[in-house]
Amino acid sequence: SSKTFWTTTGMFPQELIIGFPKCVKISKVAIQCYLVRTLRIERSTSKEPVGFEQCIEK
């Protein structure tokens, strides 16, 4: 479905930035992917997408 399928150019690295209108507590993140060497999740408390700090890298 075009509402649930995310297409990419196939180039890397790729990043997806999700913003919320206010601070929220996220207790779980589910990601489905394949042929990925490294996956990193970062966070920022800034209103703009800057000043990210790493949460986890696998």
Explain the overall architecture.
It comes from Aleadryas rufinucha (rufous-naped whistler). It is built from no helices and two strands. The N and C termini lie far apart (29 Å). The model has no long low-confidence stretch (mean pLDDT 85). A two-stranded antiparallel ribbon has the order 1-2. Helices cover 0% and strands 16% of the residues. It has one domain. It is globular, with a radius of gyration of 13 Å. It has 58 residues and is mainly β.
Radius of gyration based on Cα positions: 13 Å
Query: Percent of residues in helical segments?
Result: under 10%
What's the helix count? Answer: 0
Count the beta strands: 2
Largest sheet: 2 strands, antiparallel
Order of helices and strands: EE
Write down the domain tally.
1
Structural class category: mainly beta
How much of the sequence lies in strands comes to: 15-25%
Global mean pLDDT: 85
Tell me, what's the shape? globular
N- to C-terminal separation? 29 Å
Q: Name the strands of the widest sheet in spatial order.
A: 1-2
Report the uncertain regions. none
